[in-house]
Structure formats: C-alpha cells, structure tokens
C-alpha cells in the first residue's frame, strides 16, 4: 500500500545501520546509578498533610473500590485499619491522589457524628483536586462509569474542569489550570468562555 | 510480583523506593533503543536521566494507567528536545546511509539513480527536521516506535485528536517524497 510515512519508517536508524551498537553495558551502568540515587533517598514515606478530610460512607468497602477504579486514587495500604463495630466489619482507609489525601470510613453516628450524603439527602462539601492531564483523567473516569454532574469545560477563571458525584453522593471537582496545561504542551482556548478546547 | 502492573509498582515505590528498580528492568531496554534512534551516542546519559526524572516524579504518576511505558516515552521525548541539533545531524547522516542501502540493485541503475536517491532521502530527513517539534515527536513515536494514537496522547499529554491531526499534517508534509527503493527492504 502506498504510505507517505513509509520513507521515514525506513529511515529509522536501526534499519539503515543494522549493527548500530546499543552498548549492553549502558543498561547495567545506568541501573547502578539509579539504584544509588534510590538508596540516597533520605525518606520515602508519605507525609500526611496537616489537613485532610474524612468522608463518611454507608459502604466504605465499595467506596474504596470505586474511588481507586474510577477516580484513580491509590490506597496507602499500610495505613488501613479494619475493626469490628456494631457487629459489622468496618474500615478506615487513606487514599492519595497527587499530594492530596482523603480518609474514608463508615458513617459514624455515635462518636464522630458524621453522616453519608445518602442519609441526609445532600452533601455539604465539595472535594477539589488538581490533576495532571485533566483530559486523560476525565476520559478514564467516564470510561469507568463515573456519574458526571458537570461536563468537562474550560472555565473563565483559567481552569479546565469537570465534576462527578461518587457512588454515595460525595461531590468531586477535578481541574487543571490552563497554565499547567500550557506548561505540558497542551492547548487551551484563547477565549475560555467560548467553551470547547481547541485541538491545535 | 510479575503480575503487578507498572502503576502498582510505582505506587509501591512510594513507600519502598527500591521497588522502582522493577520499572527500570521492565522498560529501560525499549526506552534506550528509542533514545539511540533519536540522538545516537548521547542516549547513554539520557537513559539515566529519564529514569531519574521518572523516579523523582513518581508521586504524580496517574494510578489509573496500568502501563507506564507511554509515561516514560513522554519523559524521554521531552529530554530529547534539548538535543535538537544533534538530531538534525543524525537524520541527515541516516539519509546518506539510506541512499546507499536502499538504492537500486542493478549497478547501472544504481549509478543513474544514486544522485536522485541521495537527494530524495535527504528530502525525507529535511522534511522530518522541518516539522514543528510536537509534530516530529508525534510522528517518530508513531512510525519508529509503533505507539498507538492513544499511547502517544498519553506520552505527550495531548488530546488524541491532536495526535490524529499531527499525523495527518505530517502525511501531507511528506507526500510526494518517495525515494527510489528496490528490493531488500526489511519490514
């Protein structure tokens, strides 16, 4: 088939120079350097931010699965606490996205007096997250079945954002500043109020 | 252990930095080949740089992406951008080798064609060199590295529509440049 890209494909250096060396010692040497860099790390434990929210869920186990799968959180496994309470197995888990940390647990009416949105009929907070590559985050969340309550759009104040409600009604706002999008080589509209991002 | 995804390895490396070595074992060879293709001998140092940057940024890795290869390609590509001049020279050199290697088989034809072949291949190299950086990166990830549009979008942090339009523009740019190629083409 005729393909305009074929000449360039053929120009790939290892096609024209079949015996170009990829010095095998390079890999081991560079790995050694990487390992010494890693070993020099003074402290690789994650520091808890001084402020982080605790969210209440009726089913915190389902919430954990959902937040990881749909929104891309990572659980700090070593922090998890499981216990029996009210004849039921309960869990506290800490989830991380970027530098943000959120704690999730069972709605607790006896000690902490916090309720899941489903018990109140509404929520009283919105969780705001800065993400790297908002477009990718949005595409992933939608593909994973997120309940999007505000479509991805460029806001007048210079942020590309969308909002979604999780399985129990907590509201999440994901955004990336236009400045950050430009810094990673992405394109943003000249007139954000005009709506859609330009493709080039 | 081998069944864990790259994302899981990176997540684990947040608490246990040594786990990051697994990422090197999985991808260093491919990333190194890519760097050699683009910048030649300078690839040696760049390889270490790619993984150093990756290690330092591992906290911002998007956990929803199981495969880290596009991410590493992206870091490598941004580092290559500092070696633009070397890359242009290298493409020109490849064009000269290509003219010899892909020339006509028949000696008489080869002599007749050789001048054209040298010029044609130089035009391919120039066309690639002349492309804006984003388009060249996209194009080379596509034709040299066989990444999918989706993977390129992840690597370069651009929407997939941008990848598509860049490839289309590159096609238009390269149209009509068809060096003489006879026989013995691998792949």
Outline the fold blueprint.
The complex is a heterodimer of chains A (200) and B (187).
Chain A: H1 6-10, H2 13-16, H3 24-39, E1 54-57, H4 60-71, E2 74-75, E3 81-85, E4 88-97, E5 100-106, H5 117-120, E6 126-130, H6 134-143, E7 147-155, E8 159-165, E9 171-177, H7 178-183
Parallel strand pairs in A: 1-5, 6-9
Antiparallel strand pairs in A: 2-4, 3-4, 4-5, 7-8, 8-9
Chain B: H1 6-15, H2 20-39, H3 43-56, H4 69-80, H5 84-101, H6 107-130, H7 133-143, H8 149-156, H9 160-174
Describe the structure.
The complex is a heterodimer of chains A (200) and B (187). Chain A is of the alpha+beta class and 200 residues long. Chain A has a single domain (54-194), classed as 2,3-Dihydroxybiphenyl 1,2-Dioxygenase, domain 1 (Roll). Chain A is built from seven helices and nine strands; from the N terminus they run H-H-H-E-H-E-E-E-E-H-E-H-E-E-E-H. Chain A has helices at 6-10, 13-16, 24-39, 60-71, 117-120, 134-143, 178-183, and strands at 54-57, 74-75, 81-85, 88-97, 100-106, 126-130, 147-155, 159-165, 171-177. The longest helix of chain A is centred in the N-terminal third of the chain and has 16 residues, at 24-39. The relative contact order of chain A is 0.12. The model of chain A has no long low-confidence stretch (mean pLDDT 86). Chain B contains nine helices and no strands. Chain B is elongated, with a radius of gyration of 19 Å. Chain B is 71% helix and 0% strand. With 187 residues, chain B is mainly α. The longest helix of chain B is centred in the middle third of the chain and has 24 residues, at 107-130. Chains A and B meet through helix 1, helix 2, helix 3 and helix 6 of A and helix 1, helix 2, helix 3, helix 5 and helix 6 of B.
């Amino acid at each position: 088939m005729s393909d305009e890209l074929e000449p360039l494909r053929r120009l790939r250096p290892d096609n024209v120079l079949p015996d170009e060396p990829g010095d095998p010692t390079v890999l081991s040497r560079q790995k050694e350097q990487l390992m010494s860099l890693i070993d020099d790390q003074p402290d690789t434990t994650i520091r808890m931010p001084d402020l982080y929210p605790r969210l209440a869920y009726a089913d915190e186990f389902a919430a954990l699965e959902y937040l990881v799968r749909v929104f891309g959180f990572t659980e700090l496994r070593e922090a998890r606490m499981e216990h029996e309470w009210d004849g039921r197995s309960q869990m506290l888990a800490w989830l991380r996205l970027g530098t943000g940390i959120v704690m999730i647990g069972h709605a607790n009416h006896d000690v902490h007096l916090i309720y899941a949105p489903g018990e109140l009929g509404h929520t009283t907070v919105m969780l705001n997250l800065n993400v790297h590559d908002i477009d990718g985050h949005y595409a992933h969340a939608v593909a994973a079945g997120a309940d999007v309550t505000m479509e991805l759009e460029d806001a007048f104040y210079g942020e590309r954002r969308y909002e979604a409600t999780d399985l129990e009604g907590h509201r999440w706002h994901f955004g990336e500043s236009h400045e950050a999008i430009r810094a990673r080589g992405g394109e943003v509209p000249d007139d954000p109020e005009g709506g859609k991002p330009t493709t080039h | 252990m081998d069944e864990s995804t790259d994302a899981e390895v990176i997540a684990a490396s947040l608490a246990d930095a040594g786990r990051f070595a697994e990422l090197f074992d999985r991808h260093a060879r491919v990333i190194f080949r890519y760097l050699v293709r683009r910048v030649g001998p300078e690839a040696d140092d760049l390889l270490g740089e790619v993984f150093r940057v990756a290690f330092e940024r591992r906290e911002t890795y998007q956990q929803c992406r199981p495969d880290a290869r596009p991410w590493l390609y992206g870091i490598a590509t941004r580092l290559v951008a500092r070696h633009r001049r070397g890359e242009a020279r290298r493409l020109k050199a490849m064009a000269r080798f290509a003219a010899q290697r892909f020339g006509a088989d028949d000696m008489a034809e080869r002599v007749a064609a050789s001048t054209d072949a040298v010029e044609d291949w130089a035009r391919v190299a120039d066309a690639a060199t002349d492309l804006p950086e984003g388009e060249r990166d996209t194009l080379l990830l596509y034709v040299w590295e066989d990444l999918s549009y989706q993977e390129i979008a992840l690597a370069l942090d651009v929407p997939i529509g941008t990848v598509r339009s860049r490839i289309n523009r590159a096609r238009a740019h390269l149209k009509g440049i068809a060096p003489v190629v006879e026989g013995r083409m691998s792949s």
